[in-house]
């Protein structure tokens, strides 16, 4: 059977040991990678071939399988793909210690009567140079297949054979490389320094031509469909923010925001007041998005809002305006065409009908997208402001005065974005005339100037702050937390 014919039946996806089946968006991210595997000409790009560890392209190769799967995913997105989750993954050395053995169990399912395609996904890039790997198994078709791994490879694509779907199965795949010096690199890639123990690799079986379901759950109700659509929107938003937000690399270690006291979180849903929602879209406070606590699609609450027609219209107009602004930023900063495509998909998810509509998911998506685009716009405005501030501080007179300066700190890695925050700080001299000083500081200054050197001199410190907004998601819904006194807003001598 040709590999191209195997494509129409199914895909088996094997994830690395740090990606669990409850990790946010990991399935949806794979669909996005497959969807984006083809270029504007409808053909696979060289980057896609490298990404999937494909050595050569021919009519009967894994490249042809990837091309068909990319086209299928691009047309249908998640629709028509069914998902199974194998279990019991084990990676160990063979008795001769020259070969690694990968085994996993497949639950009984009629879907297994179709021919799968196996995709092995790695969490981190391979750092050992170029690696040619051979996979051998009676469950593969053909039994022996090859992959070419480099530092840009994230997935390995193989093809399997159809089997009896009514009984429990176990796949055993031998993995080896012909280069003796690279055998340790292969072992490190798959199991690191530990051998013979179960590792938490996640297996997925994706089958095209279905109804778009995950067999751990049943998508039958309207609320389940809304949950699925909300999930896809949030995953696309996560990817978009990861691509378009400026990448900061401060030297400080990441800080856990949860360790800071915050005000009680406010739920964003049908019961949210008009005053709260209007205040949020008019807020200029620093905002970060945290999807750290959400799990699988079955756990994502179908977000809904009930805004008045006037507020819906305001959100629609603001989305149109800021959408054009962000498109210009993407072109100016050369972020990449993927960001443009993601924004267009997000706008489709968030489309608000011109006629008066009932409360629901589209309002929720439009509201979150507006907050996200406001965050992106604010980040780029901060960059421009920092450049202007640095130019101004080159003036020795202006640079020595107590004033607000930039201070970027690392935030926890689980945040969707931004991954760093400019909390600002105060620097400069508190020599006379004092900046933003009160009477106590004026008297203290003259007291010291009179020769009383034992007292502490006035210092340049923050005297006013702004909060940090955290938009978070968990299995119960979407929440807004306010962390007070987070960003220095004004400086003075104290």
TrEMBL record:
InterPro entries associated with the record: AMH_N, Cystine-knot_cytokine, Muellerian-inhibiting_factor, TGF-b_C
SMART domains given in the database record: TGFB (SM00204)
Protein's cellular compartments: Secreted
GO terms classed as biological process: cell differentiation; gonad development
Gene Ontology MF terms: growth factor activity
Presence of the UniProt keyword Transmembrane helix in the record: no
Coarse class of the protein's main subcellular location: secreted
GO cellular component: extracellular region
Domain TGF-beta family profile: 384-494
Origin: domain of life: Eukaryota
PANTHER family linked to this entry: MUELLERIAN-INHIBITING FACTOR
Family, as annotated: Belongs to the TGF-beta family.
Protein name as annotated: Anti-Mullerian hormone
Source taxonomy: Eukaryota, Metazoa, Chordata, Craniata, Vertebrata
